[in-house]
Amino acid sequence: AQKITQTQPGMFVQEKEAVTLDCTYDTSDQSYGLFWYKQPSSGEMIFLIYQGSYDEQNATEGRYSLNFQKARKSANLVISASQLGDSAMYFCAMRVNNAGNMLTFGGGTRLMVKP
Amino acid sequence: NAGVTQTPKFQVLKTGQSMTLQCAQDMNHNSMYWYRQDPGMGLRLIYYSASEGTTDKGEVPNGYNVSRLNKREFSLRLESAAPSQTSVYFCASRLDRGPNQPQHFGDGTRLSIL
Fold first, then answer.
1. Which residues on chain B are in Cβ contact (under 8 Å) with A35?
2. Residue A57 needs a FRET pair 20 to 30 A away by CA distance; which of A33, B24, B65, B93 works?
3. Best of B100, B104, B109, B110 to disrupt the A interface by mutation (most A CBs within 10 Å)?
4. What are B20-67's pLDDT values in tens digits?
């Protein structure tokens, strides 16, 4: 069984600073993918970034980057130059290459950006 | 540019009533999913459909049924609603072209069962 753990229920960050949101995962599969989603207070789920288990480089998408440490089974999201609009819930999710490509989600981290 | 559309957005039911949540996607995706999100928690998979005509159970299927009506539509039915099914329900779809394809989500249906 797969499991995603996000140990930070809530975090504050000062506007314009960088912040790291932690995600650890557990799987016995060798081939898997890790996704981060943002859920603002309006409720929709917004895809941010993806990292494949065989990707040699850390993924980056604009201000988002993923600090992928395979041996530690961690896939932390780094947001640079935080903005007030970054205040939201952030979810880490894992897909194992099984039938259906299902996602297993962590419990989420609520990020609050202070002006 | 609709993406994934869920109806209704809000619904209040009484215990024992039945209800069908509708989901449609216009992205020609093969796979579709139903999740529930309880307060302060991540999403949990109820059912999914890897292709038209197939459905499979996820992590929390009890009390639900699904129908993959065609490639576009995937509905979730509560036959006899219970208060424990009060939740926000999300439908998602995915293009099955490579491992990096994310699931795209609808805006959710907020369901309260009294």
1. 102-103
2. B93
3. B100
4. 999 999 999 999 999 999 988 889 999 999 998 899 999 999 999 999
